[in-house]
Here is the input.
Amino acid sequence: MGSTDNDIYIMIITVTVVLLLLLIFIVSFLFIYRSRQVRHLLEIESVREKYMQEILKTELEIKEQTMKNISEEIHDNVGQILSLVVLNLSQIDPNDSDAAVKIERGTRLVQKAIGDLRNLSKTLNSDNIASLGLMAIIKSELEMLEKTGRYKTALTLSGEEKRVDGNKELVLYRIIQESLNNIIKHARAQCINVFLGFDNNKLLLEISDDGTGFDINNIETKSIYKNGSGINNMKKRAGLIGLSFSIKSTSAEGTTISMTMPLTD
Here is the structure.
């Protein structure tokens, strides 16, 4: 009888220990799961915060770059047009039979200056950038380059243009701007070609030039790309919006930047 009571006592203790261990395991599992869940949520929040900070930074950089473009455009184009208007007006003689022709010429020049200023203002506001669409944005950038007289540009569209999420479009626009700025600063190119394609819910973008190019494998040794900051910025931003980013370049044969991004309905 005593042996049976002892066995029962041992069984009760064993079951209790097993249950306690099971309870400890469950509590530990829930604690670890909750900790991982909290950590995951914090990581998501951190990524979201970094994304929003990058969007803000991108907006500021776009406005800074656009202001620079506007300054140059006003100085080189609008300012020159208005100077011609002043010259035309100063030469008008009320008794001159050509006065009406000169006034009409001056009026056309003023209208052109107003049109140029309106086009410039459209590129300053990020809301306007979002409303224009990629095709119009790229076209506007290339037209500015054409006006300098230093570059021949071409823009090709394949497929039907689809809109991109506003924030992603803003980041993509900054990548395009930075790519074109790199060409201006380093490539010594004469021709710039941009391909924009929409196929199977994917966006395809290629920016190529006929400049000096560089050796991809030895990019760190190139003085103009010593820190690779421009390229690194583009790659970082590309990763932020799920954009596949690659560069092909050959010395003396130019550079091509290719980007691919999935589109969601």
Q: What stands out?
A: Strands lie at 152-158, 191-199, 202-209, 244-250, 254-262.
